[in-house]
């Protein structure tokens, strides 16, 4: 099984907004198939609809050969960039951990 890191974006922003923000954060090239490829050719990302939250998105972070540290660094870059540049609800999770690695939820009050 492929181990993946996930940056989960709460409902609100569009697919185009999330994709553009991730592309900018990782200096990635967007392919016709919707995959984002940063300059490190072992890495790939994609933004898909969150199956658990209508209107939410999941940024899947893959790294060929599964070097966990490098995948976590890339996912952390995405999470930190989105946290700094947006007001979106964010969760960073990984197949490698039992607990969420980071979370920023806007107060609804």
Give the fraction of residues assigned to helices: 25-40%
What is the helix/strand order? EHEEEEHEE
What general form does the structure show?
globular
Low-confidence stretches: none
Strand content: 25-35%
Enumerate how many helices there are, as a single number.
2
Query: Considering the protein shown, what is the CATH homologous superfamily?
Result: ZipA, C-terminal FtsZ-binding domain
**Biggest sheet details:** 7 strands, antiparallel
Roughly how many Å is the radius of gyration? 13 Å
| CATH class category label | Alpha Beta
Widest β-sheet, arrangement of strands: 2-3-4-5-1-6-7
What's this, in brief?
With 109 residues, this protein is of the alpha+beta class. It contains 2 helices and 7 strands. It has a 7-stranded antiparallel β-sheet with strand order 2-3-4-5-1-6-7, with helices on one face.
SSE layout and pairing:
Elements (H helix, E strand, L loop, with lengths): L4 E5 L5 H12 L2 E2 L4 E3 L5 E7 L7 E7 L4 H18 L4 E5 L7 E3 L5
Antiparallel strand pairs: 1-5, 1-6, 2-3, 3-4, 4-5, 6-7
Helix pairs in contact: 1-2
């Amino acid at each position: 099984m492929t181990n993946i890191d996930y940056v989960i974006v709460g409902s609100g922003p569009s697919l185009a907004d999330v994709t553009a923000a991730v592309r900018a954060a990782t200096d990635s090239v967007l392919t016709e198939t919707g995959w984002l490829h940063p300059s490190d050719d072992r890495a790939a990302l994609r933004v898909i609809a969150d199956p658990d939250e209508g209107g939410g998105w999941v940024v899947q972070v893959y790294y060929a050969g599964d070097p966990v540290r490098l995948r976590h660094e890339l996912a952390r870059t995405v999470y930190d960039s989105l946290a700094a540049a947006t007001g979106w609800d964010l969760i960073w999770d990984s197949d490698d951990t039992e607990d969420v690695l980071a979370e920023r939820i806007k107060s609804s009050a």
